[in-house]
């Protein structure tokens, strides 16, 4: 990681586009904001609070130092998806946390749960799947 290009690239396999950030904190905040919009079960949601909630930057830096990247799996729509955090971003860089851009795919279309054609807004209270 010593000579890696600057920044971090994060994404959720087959759900979001990979997005690059100059700093790790906004990258992780963006992942957490995006995960809030997905119908994760309570156990998955609480597990990811550990990875992307308070203290996430320090924990993730330790993972990146040790393993070179962080990949976490979770079940969604009957399949395992990977969340990835990798050092070395590829511009343009996002500077502030924002929900990651969702892919235009059948899987994402099936997640549009509230009838308006969009996922519930980040931070909104909605029923989580079991």
Describe the protein's architecture and organization.
This protein has 130 residues and is α+β, with helices and mostly antiparallel strands. The protein has a domain of 85 residues. It is 32% helix and 20% strand. The chain contains four helices and five strands. Strands 3-4-1-2-5 form a five-stranded mixed sheet.
Short synopsis of the structure:
32% of the residues lie in helices and 20% in strands. It has 130 residues and is an alpha+beta fold. The protein has a domain at 7-91.
Spatially, the strands of the biggest sheet line up as 3-4-1-2-5
- Helix/strand order, N-terminal first: EEHHHEEEH
Proportion in helices: 25-40%
Counting H and I runs of at least 4 residues, what is the number of helices? Answer: 4
Major β-sheet, in short? Answer: 5 strands, mixed
Q: Radius of gyration in whole Å, from Cα? A: 14 Å
Given the helix and strand composition, which structural class is it? Answer: alpha+beta
- Number of β-strand runs: 5
Question: How much of the polypeptide forms β-strand, as a percent range?
Answer: 15-25%
N-C termini distance? 39 Å
Large-scale geometry: globular
**Overall average pLDDT:** 82
List unreliable stretches of 5+ residues: 114-130
Write the layout of secondary structure elements.
Layout: E1 8-12, E2 19-21, H1 24-35, H2 42-52, H3 56-67, E3 70-76, E4 79-87, E5 93-94, H4 106-111
Helix pairs in contact: 1-2
Descriptive labels:
single chain, 130 residues, alpha+beta, five-stranded mixed sheet, 4 helices, 20% strand, globular, disordered C terminus
